[in-house]
């Protein structure tokens, strides 16, 4: 099964194909290759994270309105560990570490519960970005909310990862990109 087939949320799959179209060979694309006007429709649910390898911290460089509404705080320019508290910080931090330090594309579907709010089903995609190809400098992420669940009904966690260096899988996915192109502008 190709990695793209595991991403069953259409907007996230389209973002993955967009990222693939910017990727070069074995390396993820640089941050400068990501053009917000090309992914305008997803901007409310997008975020871009700067990776600080020395401190192993993450700083929000872009956070769409839907992302900020989910976490109920302004994120732009803030460090993850200063902006969010448990359990939200751990929820974000774990996936960010996998994508940034293990150099993996990371897709996750799960149910999130925040105190005083209904359960929320979500799908999230994290895509590494690198200026040099050696280190991950930024993460391009998108989170889509499926629905709110008013009862105690958490779903099982579903996670899929692919290492950046897995050229064969990325080539298969690129070969299978939709013939009508990537549909992210609106």
From the structure above, extract its key features.
six-stranded antiparallel β-sheet, single chain, 186 residues, alpha+beta
In short:
With 186 residues, the protein is α+β, with helices and mostly antiparallel strands. A six-stranded antiparallel β-sheet has the order 2-1-5-4-3-6, sandwiched between helices.
| CA gyration radius, whole angstroms | 16 Å
**Arithmetic mean pLDDT:** 80
Q: Residue ranges: pLDDT <50 for 5 or more in a row?
A: none
The percent of residues in helical segments reads 25-40%
The strand order across the widest sheet is 2-1-5-4-3-6
Sheet with most strands: 6 strands, antiparallel
Order of helices and strands: HHEEHHHEEEEH
| Structure summary, number of beta strands | 6
Quickly count the helices.
6
Question: Overall 3D geometry?
Answer: globular
N-to-C CA distance: 31 Å
Q: Which structural class fits the helix and strand makeup?
A: alpha+beta
Topology, please?
Layout (H helix, E strand, L loop, with lengths): L2 H4 L3 H13 L23 E7 L4 E7 L1 H7 L8 H4 L4 H14 L2 E9 L6 E11 L8 E12 L8 E6 L3 H9 L11
Antiparallel strand pairs: 1-2, 1-5, 3-4, 3-6, 4-5
Provide a descriptive summary of the structure in words:
This protein is an alpha+beta fold. Helix content is 27%, strand content 28%. It has helices at residues 3-6, 10-22, 65-71, 80-83, 88-101, 167-175, and strands at 46-52, 57-63, 104-112, 119-129, 138-149, 158-163. It has a 6-stranded antiparallel β-sheet, sandwiched between helices. Strand 3 and strand 4 form a beta hairpin. The protein is globular. The model has no long low-confidence stretch (mean pLDDT 80).
């Amino acid at each position: 099964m190709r990695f793209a087939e595991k991403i069953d949320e259409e907007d996230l799959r389209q973002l993955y194909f967009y990222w693939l179209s910017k990727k070069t060979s074995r390396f993820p694309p640089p941050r400068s290759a990501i053009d917000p006007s090309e992914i305008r429709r997803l901007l409310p649910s997008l975020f871009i994270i700067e990776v600080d390898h020395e401190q192993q911290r993450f700083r929000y460089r872009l956070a769409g309105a839907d992302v900020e509404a989910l976490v109920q705080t302004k994120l732009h320019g803030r460090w993850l560990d200063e902006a969010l508290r448990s359990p939200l910080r751990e929820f974000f931090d774990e996936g960010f570490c996998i994508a940034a330090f293990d150099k993996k594309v990371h897709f996750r579907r799960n149910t999130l519960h925040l105190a005083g709010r209904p359960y929320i089903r979500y799908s999230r995609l994290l895509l590494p970005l690198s200026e040099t190809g050696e280190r991950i400098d930024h993460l391009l992420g998108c989170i889509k909310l499926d629905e709110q669940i008013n009862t105690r009904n958490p779903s099982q966690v579903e996670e899929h990862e692919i290492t950046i260096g897995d050229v064969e899988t990325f080539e298969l996915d690129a070969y299978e990109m939709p013939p009508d192109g990537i549909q992210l502008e609106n």
